[in-house]
Specification:
With about 260 residues, the protein is of the alpha/beta class. About 35% of the residues lie in helices and about 15% in strands. It folds into 2 domains: about 5-35 and about 85-125 and about 175-255, TPP-binding domain (Rossmann fold); about 55-85 and about 135-165, SIR2/SIRT2 'Small Domain' (2-Layer Sandwich).
């Protein structure tokens, strides 16, 4: 593996003097956990076989869920099976340890819940999480493990209402509470912004990185592939998430020992 020593040294130097650090993560963050990279909500469907002859974006759309919840749930259950058994990887645990080093804020598009499971204390899940469910009628909260997904759609044990996962379907707004937290953190400013494993296709990921750079933060992209952010950031580390984070951590440790 050939490393860009200047890019790593520049990033490590900025981190060594940073107080507030923002980490934006996408599907590439969970690739080392055995989850394939994916597009759109919840994901894991680039290779999914669709029996109904509909685009997956339509099946996972809010209006399809309202009209035919069993159909939407069929594919949500497939996504859940792809995630089941996955665990946080070394990159997730490293970021959790960085909570003791910085005022670290993790903002993720992923719905696997791995950042929280790894122990990160300040996580904003912009697209929700598959692990949490709620009743559309009475609002009762559930865990995914409360239901047998062989029987779809799941129904509320209190009122028999329709139960849904707390994820953002196509056609839905981002959760207001998560957005408010995100906006509040952005207003405070950051010294370093790391965009890890995300194509940055959504404006709420792409635009804050550009704005942070304008305000003086060092912006860094960690991704083996070029994205919409590649031409917009100060530094690009063309590696997978785990590898880049481990190299950064090593250089940061070395700086602090000398």
């Amino acid at each position: 593996m050939r490393l860009d020593d200047h890019a790593f040294d520049t990033t490590a130097a900025a981190l060594a003097s940073a107080r507030r650090v923002l980490v934006l993560t996408g599907a590439g963050m969970s690739a080392a956990s055995g989850l394939p990279t994916y597009r759109g909500i919840g994901g894991l469907y680039n290779d999914m076989v669709i029996d109904e002859g509909m685009p997956i974006e339509e099946i996972l759309h809010a209006y399809t869920f309202a009209r035919d919840p069993a159909l939407t749930w069929k594919y949500i259950a497939q996504i859940e099976r792809a995630c089941r058994g996955g665990k946080p990887n070394a990159g997730h645990y490293l970021l959790a340890r960085w909570d003791d080093r910085f005022e670290l804020r993790v903002v993720t598009q992923n719905v696997d819940g791995f950042h929280r499971e790894a122990g990160s204390r300040h996580v904003i899940e912009l697209h929700g999480t598959l692990a949490d469910l709620s009743c559309c009628a009475c609002g009762r909260a559930y865990s995914l493990h409360d239901f047998d997904l062989a029987h779809l759609p799941p129904r509320c044990k209190d009122c028999d209402g329709l139960v849904r996962p707390d994820v953002v379907l196509f056609g839905e707004m981002l959760p207001a509470r998560a957005v408010a937290r995100y906006e509040h953190e952005l207003e405070q400013g950051f010294d370093v912004v790391l965009a890890i494993g995300t194509t940055a296709g959504f404006p709420y990921i792409h635009t804050p990185v550009i704005e942070a750079r304008r305000r003086g933060a060092l912006t860094v992209e960690i991704n083996p592939d070029e994205t919409l952010l590649t031409a917009e950031v100060d530094v690009r580390l063309a590696l997978d998430a785990c590898g880049a984070l481990e190299f950064l951590d090593q250089r940061l440790e070395k700086r602090q020992r000398t």
